[in-house]
Design a protein that fits this description.
Blueprint (H helix, E strand, L loop, with lengths): L7 H53 L4 H24 L8 H9 L7 H17 L7 H18 L4 H20 L2 H12 L5 H21 L17 H32 L7 H19 L7 H9 L5 H20 L7 H21 L8 H17 L2 H12 L5 H17 L5 H10 L9 E7 L21 E7 L2 E3 L11 E7 L3 H12 L3
Antiparallel strand pairs: 1-4, 2-3, 2-4
């Protein structure tokens, strides 16, 4: 059919109504993605908790020395096996948030998504179960993106809609990890998709609610709910001084933390030892910490919750535990084994906040009952400083603890910390990891790539002829997908629902992604 011979206004009316049904289908599919992600990511969380409990029971029982001689080589073999998996499938390394962003941007493609999903699932469980200080949230995010990718492939979803399902799966993964659907949607917007398209926000929230619901069924008792958050009884001006102090010291500490983490990550590959020997050293550290304080391993979340529930400890002891956790986390993450840094970052921020709170108690500014309150706010501030996701941090802590008391103070500390980290030029950690990833072959050798955009009603592209459009240099429309047909762009008028493939230089994707998407969207 020759679309150009039809009345464009009548055609657009029909297309808009049709798009409403297409959007409804996409929202339904996103719910399905959330369901599948919950059915995979929640068991991932459950198995991590199960193996942690088994490991904790083993070390707490103080077994005979010959049991250690049996367990240690088994754990070493497990780490060597996971390292081999990462070598075979490099995309399963680390947390997975940079990889997920790369797939959404079109920089990265999952060649064998089902196999990589299985490897990420098993590799993450084995790494954390061996005692390494890694988080479950990053792998859950990437697991969700794998599921979104698979559903888009199997369901023959248009390329322009695929990123919505990828984002929905990623958000559902975080929701499954924390049972926090609202924070998961914000993380996708702030750190992964980095573009607040309404359709992406809706699909992510729908998928997150479903996955979070499954997580709430499997984990009906959220341990964070047991933490009290009692605000100090002091005048508003005095409270603001305390919050300002928190923001300043957290920002400075975050600068040192970011520097040390990146230094460790860069120095680890330069250590002239075989991979299995470096893993042996790492396991020795993990095993020693397990013998002394097993709750500090596996990310340290259990140790943090225990401290928040009974936070009046000697300052020097807490400082020592925090520094051990910080160094162990950087070494664990530098290994490249599957596991995120989100939870370890929260733990470090919480313990640092406990140190500040203990000092404030010592000098009579707050009471002992206020220690956990300061810890929760510090977790927000430190997460904002390191990851640069203020909305996610504020909503996440409020959502998982259920304490509205920390919401407004977290906004103040989060906002101030964001400003101070800008002054200190702390680059967001996931952005650093993403830049490192795309600077490696084969991504740095890519010449041309394609970006798929969907035309929305009322956008700049809507109703424009392709010849009228002025695109950035070396960008051009390759083809148009309309009603499952591929059309040549010459002489075509863009209408709502068109899936437009724009070919651009691969090295320009990060700079042009948001501007090009914005031309096709409306807010």
């Amino acid at each position: 059919m020759d679309w150009n011979n039809l009345d464009i206004r009548e055609l657009k009316k029909r297309r808009i109504w049709k798009l409403k049904f297409i959007d409804a289908r996409l929202y339904f599919v996103s719910i399905f993605v959330g369901l599948l992600t919950g059915m995979v990511a929640v068991p991932y969380h459950y198995l991590l908790q199960l193996f942690f409990d088994i490991r904790k029971a083993f070390f707490d029982s103080h077994p005979h020395w010959y049991f250690h001689l049996l367990l240690f080589p088994i754990l070493w073999g497990i780490l060597i096996f996971v390292s081999w998996l990462v070598k075979k499938m490099p995309l399963i390394t680390g947390g997975g948030i940079p990889q997920t962003r790369g797939v959404i941007n079109g920089r990265v493609d999952y060649k064998n998504p089902l196999l990589q999903l299985i490897a990420k699932f098993s590799g993450g469980i084995l790494s954390l179960s061996a005692g390494l200080s890694l988080g479950r949230e990053g792998p859950c995010v990437q697991i969700g993106s794998y599921i979104g990718y698979l559903v888009s492939k199997w369901g023959r979803v248009l390329s322009g809609e695929r990123k919505q399902l990828l984002a929905a799966g990623a958000g559902a993964g975080l929701a499954a990890a924390f049972a926090a659907p609202l924070a998961s949607s914000l993380l996708v917007i702030e750190s992964i998709e980095r573009f607040d398209a309404p359709k992406t926000a809706i699909t992510t929230l729908l998928a997150g609610v479903v996955a979070g619901g499954i997580a709430s069924i499997i984990f009906p008792i959220n341990p964070y709910f047991k933490i009290d958050a009692i605000a100090p009884s002091m005048p508003m001006l005095e409270q603001f001084k305390v919050l300002l102090l928190l923001a300043v010291v957290i920002s400075v500490f975050a600068k040192l933390y970011s520097w040390f983490t990146l230094w460790s990550k860069n120095i680890y590959p330069r250590i002239k030892q075989p991979a299995h020997i470096k893993l042996l050293y790492l396991l020795i550290i993990a095993y020693t910490i397990s013998l002394l304080e097993v709750d500090l391993t596996g990310g340290g979340e259990h140790f943090l919750i225990m401290q928040a529930m009974d936070g009046y400890k000697p300052i020097l002891w807490i400082t020592a535990m925090m520094l051990i956790h910080l160094v162990f986390t950087t070494f664990s993450f530098s290994s490249g084994l599957p596991g995120g840094n989100f939870i370890p970052t929260l733990v470090t921020g919480g313990l640092f906040g406990q140190i500040i709170a203990l000092l404030l108690v010592k000098f009579g500014y707050i009471a002992e009952a206020n220690i956990s309150y300061i810890m929760l706010i510090s977790m927000v501030g430190f997460l904002v400083a390191v990851v640069r996701t203020p909305l996610t941090g504020i909503v996440l802590i409020t959502e998982i603890t259920g304490h509205l008391e920390v919401f407004y103070p977290s906004i103040i500390v989060g906002g101030l910390t964001y400003y101070f980290t800008e002054l200190l030029q702390i680059k967001p950690f996931n952005v650093v990891l993403y830049d490192e990833m795309i600077s490696q072959p084969p991504y740095s050798q890519q010449k041309r790539s394609s970006l798929f955009v969907e035309i929305m009603h009322g956008s700049y592209f809507d109703g424009k002829k392709t010849e009228e459009l002025t695109l950035p240099e070396r960008c051009f429309i390759k083809n148009i997908r309309r009603d499952r047909k591929t059309l040549s762009p010459q002489g075509e008028t863009l209408i709502p629902g068109d899936q437009v493939e724009i070919e651009i230089d691969a090295q320009d994707i990060e700079k042009l992604y948001e501007p090009l998407i914005s031309l096709a969207n409306i807010y």
